[in-house]
Amino acid sequence: MLEGMLFEELAGFYDKLEGTSSRLAMIDILTEMFSRARKGEVKDIIYMTLGTPAPPFKGIDLGMAEKLAEEAIATATGETKEGVDRSFKKTGDLGRSAEQLMGAGRLRRMGSGKFEVSDVMATMLKIAGTSGQGSKEAKIKMLANLLAASKPLEARYIVRFALGELRLGAGDATILEALSNAATGDRKFKAKLEEAYNICSDLGLVGETLMREGKRGIEEFKVALFEPIRPALAERLPTAEEILARMGGKCAVESKYDGLRAQVHIDRAGKHVEIFSRRLERVTDMFPELTRAALREVHADSAILDGEAIAYDEATNQFHPFQETMQRKRKHGIEEKSEELPLRLFAFDLLYLNGESYLNKGYTERRDELERVVKGDGTIRFSDRTIVDKPAALEKYFDEAVEDGLEGIVAKDLDAPYVAGARKFSWIKMKRSYKGELSDTVDLVVVGYYRGKGIRTEFGFGGILAAVYDDKRDVFETVTRIGTGFTEEMMRSFRSVFEKIRVAKKPARVDALVEPDFWTEPRYVVTVKADEITKSPMHTAGRHREGEGEVGYALRFPRIVGGGIREDKSPEDATTAKEIEEMFRQQRKTKISEAAP
Ligand code: ATP
Description:
Elements: H1 7-19, H2 23-36, H3 42-50, H4 66-77, H5 81-91, H6 94-104, H7 117-129, H8 135-148, H9 152-163, H10 172-184, H11 190-200, H12 203-219, E1 233-236, H13 240-246, E2 251-256, E3 260-267, E4 272-276, H14 288-297, E5 302-313, E6 318-319, H15 322-326, H16 334-340, E7 343-353, E8 356-357, H17 363-373, E9 380-382, E10 385-388, H18 391-403, E11 408-412, E12 423-431, E13 442-450, E14 463-470, E15 475-482, H19 488-500, E16 502-503, E17 510-511, E18 518-520, E19 525-529, E20 532-536, H20 543-546, E21 552-556, E22 559-565, H21 577-595
Parallel strand pairs: 1-12, 7-9, 15-17
Antiparallel strand pairs: 2-10, 2-11, 3-4, 3-5, 5-6, 5-7, 7-8, 11-12, 13-14, 13-18, 13-19, 14-15, 16-18, 19-22, 20-21
């Protein structure tokens, strides 16, 4: 008996989403889509719309290989593998190829079309969970069966989803707004939904709770073990005076370690530990020694710690650079690496203890409790810190941190709660790079790229159109075109990476006045250094923050630092339009004070 939403209907919504170039229209479509969903299936619909079978922190990767999908399409349509491959070369999109071949396939199967969203999800989860001997054949068969029963439009999205390439471009904030609309009739409840999302990082769970338990369920949402909390982030200020003024005259200052953010969930009775990255990916397998240490060194039934994991050389007492810590991102030889480059976790916060959320307790209380439950002399240490009430003392602590090879400091408001998922002035960072010409590097999202000219023709790559994130509007606003400073290797790898995420027209969530040679889906982040921030009519960064008709901000002489794509950041983690605006203001202040006698 059919009860839920037909996949055909969902595919229809996806087709509409793909066709729109405005974010507002996108919200309308999503609102209607969620309004049609039954309570029990909204979760699956949300995951599906995000293009994953489960929230990212579950580490369930679908990403079927293209070759396997091609075989499944061949089986389902009666086309030869070569024929599918030829079509793929033409369309550059296996989803489109499947759609076309389903419509024109020799078997001329139009599909019965009567299966629900939950049927598709169940098959996808089965495919994701199949491994070992004979798994390739099994996956091909499952996908082929599903395709054989589907209509052309359904086939388009089934294939893209199986490949992990759905690319509907709906961001978290857009989905939350549509959920609020669908459940309450307007967008006002979005803020509350965001709060719930910040403490579980699971949009599907938030949507389901809203549909099943209404507003109350969301308002009473609780921190839970193994559901990652979205990390608190730091604002930036350039001087000790400004930091202390902001903090009300007194604050804690901690060393800023340049490693990998790690949120450690510990269930001691169940002997279960999970570690999540800053992007809330499950990275437990990267840190076997930390998993062991968590069970040994944390004296509580259950706890969630927040900290920075960094490779550390016991012999010389020195930290290894970020790139070396990043080597843990590999898939093989982790145990060997953990001996060669042992890690330490510098714990700096306690978010949960023995069944109780600590998010709303003040920093001092959280830190004191952290020091009570963790031994602090093994693999898990505490971030170094002191309390200051004078700029000179803060300055001195900063200088010593830099001398020790650290990145800088993070100042913390002694009374502030832990603000999940937000960049607030309760944490303020000051980095050694602020002493240079531009106050800091920025993290930008690639939204398009340019064809190479001159000697670059050979690489097919001539630069990047880069954007900041406007977290209020949930759109990406362009801030600069980066055309120089690429190594040959970078040009080659950028081209091949960006080619894969090329899209035919400007994505709905990109706000731009300039037109690159090729648009890309906003997916990758690069770290950029520039000489100066200026105002520019060409770019849209921050334009809407000032009011209608304003010009945007732009970066002058931008170049990419750090070698390439920042795997540890998602597009929504990029520097925001608000931060650029603040950096612009700070830069003016610095210039004025430098010019003063
Ligand atoms: P950056 O690129 O400057 O590290 P970010 O965008 O990764 O910035 P921020 O919010 O700007 O993150 O800075 C906070 C980051 O600094 C945290 O995500 C964490 O990984 C790291 N960090 C290192 N030491 C500390 C500390 N003692 N307290 C808080 N965060 C720390």
